[in-house]
Write a structure and sequence with these properties.
- The protein is an alpha+beta fold and 306 residues long.
- The protein folds into 2 domains: 3-121, lpxc deacetylase, domain 1 (Ribosomal Protein S5, domain 2, 2-Layer Sandwich), CATH 3.30.230; 127-301, lpxc deacetylase, domain 1 (2-Layer Sandwich).
- Helix content is 21%, strand content 31%.
- It contains 7 helices and 20 strands.
- It has helices spanning 77-85, 108-117, 178-183, 192-200, 231-244, 262-273, 286-289; strands at 3-5, 9-14, 21-28, 35-39, 48-50, 56-57, 64-66, 72-74, 91-95, 119-121, 127-131, 135-139, 142-148, 153-159, 167-173, 189-191, 213-216, 219-220, 251-258, 279-283.
- The strands form 5 sheets. Strands 11, 12, 13, 14, 15, 19 and 20 form a 7-stranded mixed beta sheet that branches. Strands 2-3-9-4-5 form a 5-stranded mixed beta sheet, with helices on one face.
- A hairpin with a 6-residue loop joins strand 2 and strand 3 (21-28).
- The chain is globular, with a radius of gyration of 18 Å.
Length: 306
């Protein structure tokens, strides 16, 4: 059965790129509504931006949606991952600015608030996207691939020259709350040189050591160090989870990312939906539903780092 929130949940925080405060409310929505954003600061234009793969436009460092009237919402990936990981299928997200607040740079503030608010079961089956055959996109050394599986699996590999990151890889089945237990608290990360370059170009003005893990060579500059020894690759998996949820429902397939980012994952979804023989929409029966992310997850599943 589909789920929505039992009650509205509010968040206040800085936009990562603007550095300006943003107020956001995640509200319940009826069955079959899906996920959409609504800009409360917009007048005279269509202020609703559906969370859909085909509305993603090119953007540095984050996932950005733009509707036909040019209204935008950016940095949506951590919130989308939290919605997917908690099994929330229908929601309206109202915000008074162009960015979702970055909060601590992970999904855990959203997950904690959603689970505390509770979910409401709706009288409609979950419609998932089943991958029927492999699809793959590449760009230089980066690759993103989807292939058939009975549940969502994510396999990710990264390689950075910085000794504190290096080579990392991880594979997880995202069934039954794995996202909440294993990934939701992993923060976005960058190198100090990247921070300096972004600031020089007017980007990441809201970025601090409190909402990102910053590396410099073999050092972790953020207070308290890492939440997981492989936190960077876990965060890449979190990002992929959020970007894949723009498919319009849970994906039943195995995603493999090698040095992949937001843009490549979106290209992968475009490749998938361009080939009608590569996917099918399916209503989830009890057996399939039991393998979806978020089924049965509770506050006690949150990691010890919270």
């Amino acid at each position: 059965m589909q789920n929505t929130l039992s009650t509205s949940v509010q968040f206040v925080g800085l936009g990562l790129h603007s550095g300006q405060p943003v107020r956001m409310t995640v509200m319940p929505a009826p069955a079959d509504h899906g996920i959409c954003f609504r800009r409360t600061d917009i007048d005279g234009l269509d202020s609703v931006v559906p969370a859909r793969w085909d509305l993603v436009v090119a953007s540095r460092l984050c996932t950005l949606l733009r509707n036909e009237d040019g209204v935008e919402v950016s940095t949506i990936e951590h919130l989308m991952a939290a919605l997917a990981g908690c099994g929330i299928h229908n929601a309206v997200i109202a915000l008074d600015g162009p960015e979702v607040p970055i909060l601590d740079g992970s999904s855990v503030p959203f997950v904690e608030a959603f689970l505390a608010a509770g979910l409401e079961e709706q009288d409609a089956p979950v419609r998932a996207i089943r991958v029927l055959k492999p699809v793959e996109v590449t760009e230089g050394l980066a690759t993103a691939r989807l292939e058939p599986s009975d549940m969502l699996e994510i396999d990710f590999r990264i390689h950075f020259d910085d000794a504190a990151i290096g080579r990392q890889e991880k594979h997880l089945s995202l069934a039954n709350g794995t996202f909440v237990r294993e990934l939701c608290d992993s923060r976005t990360f960058c190198r100090q040189a990247d921070v300096d370059a972004m600031r020089a170009n007017g980007l990441a003005l809201g970025g601090t050591l409190d909402n990102a893990v910053v590396f410099e060579g073999d050092k972790v500059l953020s207070p308290g160090g890492l939440r997981h020894s492989d936190e960077p690759v876990r965060h890449k998996m979190l990002d992929a989870m959020g970007d894949l949820y723009l498919a319009g429902g849970p994906i039943l397939g195995r995603y493999t990312g090698v040095r992949a980012g937001h843009a490549l994952t979106n290209r992968l979804l475009r490749c998938l939906f361009a080939d009608p023989s590569a996917y099918a929409f399916v209503d989830c029966g009890p057996k399939t539903f039991g393998k979806l992310p978020g089924v049965g997850v509770v506050l006690a599943d949150l990691p010890a780092t919270v």
